[in-house]
């Protein structure tokens, strides 16, 4: 039973997933700080107060929903323009480089190598 648990933990994809979760959490903090500390105050400076939590539509407190909606749109835009678009550019560049470089010629079979060595020896003797 412990061997199976050890094998499970040592699988590469489990470690990769753990690293992805940790990096994702740290990246989430960076994006939330970008939205909360940089972009939301800029939006507030341009259009008034960025906090809509006091807004009500009759008895329905719709302001928190609008705050969450604005936050979602800003986070999605930040991720798209700061992560997705640059990564697509890098992937295109790497793909072009891979296509531009011709593949190396296949290595000749052993018989061809042996015949070339024999030819070189015969040329030396002649």
From TrEMBL:
* Primary role: Channel that opens in response to stretch forces in the membrane lipid bilayer. May participate in the regulation of osmotic pressure changes within the cell.
Stored Pfam families = MscL (PF01741)
Locations listed in the record: Cell membrane
> Per its record, how is this protein called by name?
Large-conductance mechanosensitive channel
Major place of residence: membrane
Membrane topology per the record?
Answer: Multi-pass membrane protein
Q: Cite the InterPro entries for this sequence.
A: Mechanosensitive_channel_CS, MS_channel, MSC/AndL, MscL_channel
Q: Mind giving the lineage of the organism this protein is from? A: Bacteria, Thermotogati, Deinococcota, Deinococci, Thermales
Q: How is the subunit organization of this protein annotated in UniProt? A: Homopentamer.
Organism source for this protein?
Thermus tengchongensis
